[in-house]
Design a protein that fits this description.
13 strands, 9 helices, Rossmann fold, alpha/beta, single chain, two-stranded parallel sheet
């Protein structure tokens, strides 16, 4: 007799991270999802997080055992602050209030926040003080406060992912933009500050971390999703020049400079390693994969 698969609801299922997570989990779990774009079917529905009635009806109909909330605006430099706050904050509030109406609550709910809440010269941990330096970080900070103050009855895990990338990420993000220029053998590229350092992970590792947290993560806790190593944009460009044999000239564009940009983000992976102990994909392997796809 076949065992019934546990149901997972993934918000933002057709997005960059959601697509990798869905493909990773679909053999073992019964995947449901919502998004505002992409392909839809009986299990993957076109639902705006701001449409509470439609969202609630879908959640109560499927009664998922696990929920992974990836939906929302993920661009740090999103210029429309009203759109950002409505989507990220109201959307999350609507989701959590809909979950509260379930007769049997989910076993675990994972909320994707951001490591953009940190601004520290030291290696960051989950205990590092949070500092809001842009509207995107503010939207996630408010969501975290809502979870801590209003939704203590729900078994929520908060993740704070550092930067991550991989094949299929849009050119709104800096590494795919740079990769695209190298693929096209462009002579120049316009960039902002190339001296910022970020803790980069491979999206395939991040997807596996979400599965590991769903299985073994501790509710009402926070986990940084990270690699533990930090690289500058300048260093990544040099790596790509070596890999491709193509030299590219960097043109600085002040419009691409972020106000209050965080100089260095490097995280200690000790806590997430208790849940996901596999070796991380090296940045060189990630870049080579992206060049081929």
């Amino acid at each position: 007799m076949n065992k019934t698969k546990d149901k997972i609801l993934i918000t933002g299922v057709n997005g960059f991270t959601g697509a990798y997570l869905k493909n990773l989990a679909e053999d073992e779990y019964d995947i449901y999802g919502i998004d505002y774009k992409g392909k839809f079917n009986k299990k993957i529905k076109k639902i705006d997080l701001k449409d509470k009635k439609k969202l609630t009806n879908f959640i109560l109909k499927i009664e998922p055992k696990f929920i992974i909330h990836l939906g929302g605006i993920s661009q740090v430099n999103e210029s429309n602050s009203n759109k950002l706050f409505l989507t990220n904050i109201l959307g999350t509030k609507n989701l959590l209030e809909s979950i509260q109406l379930m007769q049997i609550k989910p076993e675990k709910i994972i909320f994707s926040s951001t490591a953009n809440l940190y601004n520290s010269k030291k290696i960051i941990t989950e205990r590092t003080k949070c500092t809001v330096s842009n509207n995107y970080a503010l939207s996630k900070y408010i969501c975290e406060k809502l979870i801590a103050d209003l939704y203590t009855d729900l078994p929520i895990i908060i993740t704070r992912p550092c930067n991550y990338t991989g094949a299929g990420q849009t050119e709104d993000f800096i590494i795919p933009k740079i990769i695209s220029h190298f693929k096209k053998r462009e002579k120049t590229i316009e960039l902002g500050n190339i001296e910022v350092f970020r803790d980069y992970s491979d999206v395939r590792d991040i997807a596996q971390m979400y599965i590991a947290l769903m299985r073994n993560g501790k509710a009402h806790d926070i986990y940084n999703l990270c690699s533990g190593s930090s690289h500058s944009i300048k260093e990544i460009i040099l790596k790509l020049q070596t890999m491709t044999g193509h030299q590219i000239s960097i043109k600085r564009n002040k419009r691409l400079m972020r106000k209050n940009d965080i100089k260095i983000i490097k995280a200690n992976p000790k806590k997430i390693n208790l849940i996901y102990s596999k070796n991380r994909t090296h940045i060189d392997e990630t870049l080579a994969w992206m060049l081929k796809n």
